[in-house]
Amino acid sequence: MSGLLDYVPGNTFLHRLHPLSKLIFSFGLCLACFLTQNHWLVLGVIVCSLLQAALAGMLKPALAVLRALSKLSLLLFLAQVFFVRQGQIVLSLPLDIYITDQGLSFSCLFVLRLIAVTLPLFIMLSITRMSDLTNALTRLGLPYKYAFALTTAMRFIPLFGKEMSEIMEAQTARGVEFDSKNFCKKLKLILPLCLPLLLSSVRRIENSAIAAELRGFNVRKKDSGYKRYVLGRGDAAVLGALVLILAAVGLEHFYG
Amino acid sequence: MIRIDNLSFAYGGGEKKVLEEISLHIGEGDFLGIIGPSGAGKSTLAFAVNGVVPHHFNGDFYGRVTVDGLDSLEAGPEALARRVGSVLQDIESQLLASVVEDEILFGLENFSLPRAQIEERISYALAAAGISDLRARAISSLSGGQKQKVAIAAIMALRPKIMLLDEPTGELDPQSSLRVFETLSQLNRLHGVTIVVIEQKIMMLCEFAHRLAVMERGRLILEGPVEEVLLYPEKLEAAGVNIPRVATLAGKLRARGLYQGKTPLNIAQATAMMKEATKDAALG
Ligand SMILES: Nc1ncnc2c1ncn2[C@@H]1O[C@H](COP(=O)(O)OP(=O)(O)OP(=O)(O)O)[C@@H](O)[C@H]1O
Ligand SMILES: [Mg+2]
User: Fold this and answer.
1) Best mutation site among B89, B120, B140 for testing chain A: the one with the most A CBs within 10 Å?
2) Using CA atoms, how far apart are residues B195 and B187, in angstroms rounded to an integer?
3) How close B157 comes to chain A (CA, Å)?
4) pLDDT at residue number B38
5) Which of A220, B164, B207, B218 is geometrically suited to a Cys-Cys bond with B110, CB 3.0 to 4.6 A?
6) d(CA A207, CA A212)
7) What is the number of H-type helices and E-type strands within chain B?
8) Helix (H), strand (E), coil (C) string for chain A
9) What are B190-210's pLDDT values in tens digits?
């Protein structure tokens, strides 16, 4: 069983890319989504991400993330669409509630962007080893210590999730019912569990820091890295594709 | 190799002394087992050896700890880390990489091992821990026992003079536990590595360790060669240590004057003990 943000091992074309290319490509896609106003471009990024996931052999977890995001998106969409007052009214409801074409367009773009920004990052994190990501960040000028802290912090996110579900399982075994439909009731049950979770998390983070220290983390030198990364043709292709996408966004911006 | 003199320690902010006046000498090439109930301070004692106490956790530290001639207070944790390879009790949070081979590489890189040696060290450590087939696996996909072996391999790759392991078989099945102890024993015999292992499975310690230290509520209540420590079954049981039945039997036979020898640690010795104890009975 692999959880969210866990590394998905493999030796596909995408896995073998230079970690810096993966980083730049995924953040580049996010940037493109924020810069463009074009729904189709954002949709294109989503399709492109799913294609990447398929190439990397991780379509299933990517679709799971997409499903979860879609649920959240629906909520956000509904929360937004009624608040835009400008534009032509397309649907009018009693009590002065209505939906305009601009509202529809704005909310759609918002939700599409949310999905399009999450997927590339999710895929990048799933196919990049933490040590490679750390090394890539140091190439960008971040000191090793900070880069390591950042990637380690990321690793703790799924660990929290696991711990939370463990605590909830233990409580369920004691007769606590979490599947309550009532949101407030559910929150009341979950909130008291947050303190023990926080405490055990602090312990774990401390333990990780100790483990790193005990294995010479503090004596690491600039040239201590063993792995050598080379830019290959794949990297050129991926970065080239990114340049094209950004160029399309730019053109659309000025002429669209 | 390791000298602990009159060590007392209380964690910062805590009133209670977690370690109280502990004195313990561990010679080069020794194999020491530490045993005791939960909360006795075993992990804290291990932290005092690898310098985490007092360098990481500060608190009230009295006494002196020297490791390979270095005073733990004066020497930095880095100098100690080069000498002492530690496996911590919590497995999950001490693994720092995504993939098994990266985990082993981490320490090797940090200590700037020559490039030419790195590959050999990685394969050696994986083979020694019996996990060569897990090399490219994602750590998140491993079982608790497999993770434990990865943590052990990561330390073995560094070839430290001293290996300090805090309940390294806690998540392992009996077969794998035995393998871990066999590996430790081999390192100890063939390479003279000093081994200090905290372990709840007394049978493992009886079979592989040379010396035993028993802790209870921050104090060292018994320490010595395994056979000698087993001469005090009442003390051990009072400290919540489940001693082997055969040791209890040896104690009873000794009390009745039927047996004077060492406490048997394996079947052959136990058979010999029974022969001696029943010798007179058979005649009479
Ligand atoms: N970081 C800490 N800060 C404060 N107190 C601590 C800390 N770690 C441990 N203690 C306390 O020190 C005492 C000894 O703990 P320690 O972990 O050394 O015991 P242990 O013998 O290893 O137990 P176990 O068998 O459960 O691992 C306990 O009372 C514990 O609550
Ligand atoms: Mg402990």
Assistant:
1) B140
2) 9
3) 11
4) 92
5) A220
6) 9
7) 13, 10
8) CCCCCCCCCCCCCCCCCCHHHHHHHHHHHHHHHHHCCCHHHHHHHHHHHHHHHHHCCCHHHHHHHHHHHHHHHHHHHHHHHCCCCCCCEEEEECCCEEEEHHHHHHHHHHHHHHHHHHHHHHHHHHHCCHHHHHHHHHHCCCCHHHHHHHHHHHHHHHHHHHHHHHHHHHHHHCCCCCCCCCHHHHHHHHHHHHHHHHHHHHHHHHHHHHHHHHCCHHHCCCCCCCCCCCCCHHHHHHHHHHHHHHHHHHHHHHHC
9) 999 999 999 998 888 988 999
Please report the ipTM that was assigned to this predicted complex.
0.87
Min distance A203 CA to chain B CA atoms (Å): 9
Say which ligand is closest to the CA of B200: 1
Nearest to A36 by CA among A120, A99, A116, A122: A116
Q: For residue B161, which of B68, B277, B32 has the smallest C-alpha distance?
A: B68
CB contact under 8 A, A215 and B118: no
* Residue A2: predicted pLDDT: 45
> Coil, helix or strand for A158?
helix
Interface test with B, best of A214, A217, A224 (most B CBs within 10 A): A214
B107 to chain A, any CB pair closer than 8 A? The answer is yes
The ligand 1 atom nearest the CA atom of B36: 21
Q: Is the pLDDT of residue B284 over 50?
A: no
Point out which residues pair with B61 in neighbouring strands.
B9
Taking a C-beta distance cutoff of 8 angstroms, is the pair A22, A124 a contact?
yes
Q: How confident is the model at residue A4 (pLDDT cuts 50, 70, 90)?
A: low
